[in-house]
Amino acid sequence: MIDFRKVLRSFRFAGQGIIDLFRYENNAKVHLLLAILVVAAGAYLELSRTEWAIILTQIGLVWAAEAFNTAIEKLCDFVSPGLHPQIKAIKDISSGAVLILAITAVVIGLIILGGHLLALAQ
């Protein structure tokens, strides 16, 4: 039997994590601002359903990667508050993963939004 109270409690904890991510993490705020700009541009350019699906997937992936990166960094800081070369490597690789995904999202955004902007310019 499913305990719906546990499920609701889990959703509440997850929601708090999302709120904390965007409230306290500077990079998440930057990703949120850029996502708002991209969504506004997409609405203006009247993206197709498929284009929206791709754009929104990229936004979600970048936010999720930023959340994982933040969790990894917080765990590293808790486990090893001082400087340690392995902790530095872990944090660098984790943030590098976010950068890879963010760059990919920008390229996809340029392909989709750029195509519409070029069509408008003609």
From TrEMBL:
<feature type="binding site">
    <location>
        <begin position="91"/>
        <end position="92"/>
    </location>
    <ligand>
        <name>ATP</name>
    </ligand>
</feature>
<dbReference type="GO" id="GO:0016020">
    <property type="term" value="C:membrane"/>
</dbReference>
<feature type="binding site">
    <location>
        <position position="73"/>
    </location>
    <ligand>
        <name>a divalent metal cation</name>
    </ligand>
</feature>
<feature type="binding site">
    <location>
        <position position="95"/>
    </location>
    <ligand>
        <name>substrate</name>
    </ligand>
</feature>
<feature type="binding site">
    <location>
        <position position="25"/>
    </location>
    <ligand>
        <name>ATP</name>
    </ligand>
</feature>
<keyword id="KW-0067">ATP-binding</keyword>
<dbReference type="GO" id="GO:0016301">
    <property type="term" value="F:kinase activity"/>
</dbReference>
<keyword id="KW-0479">Metal-binding</keyword>
<dbReference type="GO" id="GO:0046872">
    <property type="term" value="F:metal ion binding"/>
</dbReference>
<keyword id="KW-0812">Transmembrane</keyword>
<dbReference type="GO" id="GO:0008654">
    <property type="term" value="P:phospholipid biosynthetic process"/>
</dbReference>
<feature type="binding site">
    <location>
        <position position="66"/>
    </location>
    <ligand>
        <name>substrate</name>
    </ligand>
</feature>
<dbReference type="InterPro" id="IPR000829">
    <property type="entry name" value="DAGK"/>
</dbReference>
<keyword id="KW-0808">Transferase</keyword>
<feature type="transmembrane region" description="Helical">
    <location>
        <begin position="30"/>
        <end position="47"/>
    </location>
</feature>
<dbReference type="GO" id="GO:0005524">
    <property type="term" value="F:ATP binding"/>
</dbReference>
<keyword id="KW-1133">Transmembrane helix</keyword>
<feature type="active site" description="Proton acceptor">
    <location>
        <position position="66"/>
    </location>
</feature>
<dbReference type="InterPro" id="IPR033717">
    <property type="entry name" value="UDPK"/>
</dbReference>
<keyword id="KW-0472">Membrane</keyword>
<dbReference type="Pfam" id="PF01219">
    <property type="entry name" value="DAGK_prokar"/>
</dbReference>
<protein>
    <submittedName>
        <fullName>Undecaprenol kinase</fullName>
    </submittedName>
</protein>
<feature type="binding site">
    <location>
        <position position="25"/>
    </location>
    <ligand>
        <name>a divalent metal cation</name>
    </ligand>
</feature>
<keyword id="KW-0547">Nucleotide-binding</keyword>
<keyword id="KW-0460">Magnesium</keyword>
<feature type="transmembrane region" description="Helical">
    <location>
        <begin position="93"/>
        <end position="119"/>
    </location>
</feature>
<keyword id="KW-0418">Kinase</keyword>
<feature type="binding site">
    <location>
        <position position="73"/>
    </location>
    <ligand>
        <name>ATP</name>
    </ligand>
</feature>
